[in-house]
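Demo today. Your pick:
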Amino acid sequence: MRQVYLAATGQNRGKTTTSIGLLDGFLRRGLDTRFMKPVGQRTIIEAGVPADEDAVLVRNVFGLLDPMTVMSPVHIPRGFTKAYINGEIVEDLGARIRAAHAAVTRAGDILLIEGTGHAGVGAVIGLSNATVAALLGAPAIIVSEGGVGRPIDEIVLNASHFASQGVRVAGAIVNKVDLDVQPGIVQTLERGLALHGIPLLGVLPYRPILSNPTLAMILEGVHGETVHPGPDLDRVIGGVAIGAMEPAHMLERIQPDTLVIVPGDREDVILTLTTAHLTGGLDGGGYPRGAALGLVLTGGYRPRQAVLEAIKRANLFATIVPDDTYVVASEVHDLLVKTHSADAGKIEMIKALVWEHLKIDRVLEAAGPVPA
């Protein structure tokens, strides 16, 4: 069975997005495709079994049949790392991974192995991505994100760690690239990586829906009190604005789908935004044109009841949080955006994006020849 080990240069580089797209591409090629995530850091309970959430996502999206114990053999819950360092974990975790790998490779055409973070993540428990890829004999593909210097630097650094463990780096994928702003970027990246002997397997263009959170994710991330849910918590925010200026100036900075973070006592800004929401007309999708998508009211300040009623009349998403504006803005910026199996539109966009912009045949070649 052919196999590839998908790693990244850091968190939120698009590794799970790439995994979904590659699995879809392999299946479109008619290949019997398998998946495993040897070491998971975000554990959930699925049908009574602890498993990494990405493994659960992939299993649900593609209807894979391998048991979760095979697809997600090792997971690191809170406190696990400290217990391992203190000698409280005595199990041979590598043996558990090898056993799961042997089970998942008994049949099929290709196995996608998804790592966790950069090449060195997991070293604290003796299971870095480079170590696990070497353990399983899988070539690595490294995912980074947009730019020129930074992705090449990061990819080369991670490739060196894989190489130190005897792992062949089969290529790299650069995600979140603004192709319109950077014409010729693909050729530049290809030449830059070739100087280090690393093939560029593809470039994925930036799409806000794949990087920005939904209102529901915002609500969960800031732990706020819901003032009004608005018409659709699954709506993806297009950007963030801070309501710390005069209302007229604020309106100049509001684009469609903007989330506004504003102190709850800035009733002038809040009422200006609700009025714009009510009077701006509707776009083709039935949403207010040129108006904010939602409000995060900071500082724990609750507006007067008349202002709260205006928010509800405008049918505008709003939540109250106790933290100040700067803290909330930082939380929203750092919000970890994960794909969920219920995100049908997002998943279909991922599949289409990867199918169009990645050369699946080149990835298959990178995985090595078909076993005789």
Notes: The longest helix spans residues 149-164.
